[in-house]
Task: inverse folding
């Protein structure tokens, strides 16, 4: 668990017999957020907008909902490594990095063309599958991640990945 009231877990979709990444947050921890007029709808609209994205470099959302006091989002499980764990070969390092950057930019431009900004881009949300395919995961969803513009404490390593416009509100 990343925090006592939310986290991401490896789960199994029993209907389709496949691994799934299950992101959860306890309803009581976002109750104030959800009770504000229109914010519950905006939360689910944000998840739906992300789920409508269909791009080879973006992880897919399979399901979302609320059950027994838990909000959840089920997304594609990526068998592979976070970008921060990837070792590049010295003789091809620059080329490999350039190819990955092009894929990242293409995926983010596609999402932006559909009206969706990632707002949570960092090496831990960039994955290389065992087949060396890039997948970008974990678009920021209010309630499931700390809001950098209002957080009292951010994990120090994450400062370098937060966009200036987020920090400025």
Result:
């Amino acid at each position: 668990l990343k925090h006592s009231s939310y986290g991401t877990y490896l789960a199994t979709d029993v209907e389709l017999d496949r691994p799934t990444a299950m992101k959860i947050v306890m309803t009581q921890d976002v109750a104030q957020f959800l009770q504000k007029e229109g914010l519950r709808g905006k939360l689910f609209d944000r998840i739906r907008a992300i789920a409508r994205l269909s791009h080879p470099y973006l992880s897919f959302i399979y399901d979302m909902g609320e059950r027994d006091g838990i909000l959840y989002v089920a997304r594609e499980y990526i068998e592979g490594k976070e970008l921060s764990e990837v070792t590049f070969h010295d003789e091809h390092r620059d080329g490999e990095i350039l190819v990955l950057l092009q894929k990242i930019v293409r995926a983010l431009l596609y999402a932006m063309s559909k009206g969706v900004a990632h707002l949570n881009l960092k090496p831990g949300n960039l994955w290389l599958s065992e087949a060396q395919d890039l997948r970008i995961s974990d678009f920021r969803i209010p309630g499931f991640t700390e809001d950098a513009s209002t957080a009292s404490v951010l994990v120090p390593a994450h400062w370098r990945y937060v966009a200036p416009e987020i920090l400025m509100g």
Observations:
- The first helix runs from residue 31 to 35.
- The beta strands are 6-13, 18-26, 61-67, 70-76, 80-82, 126-129, 134-136.
- Residues 32 and 39 are 10 Å apart (CA to CA).
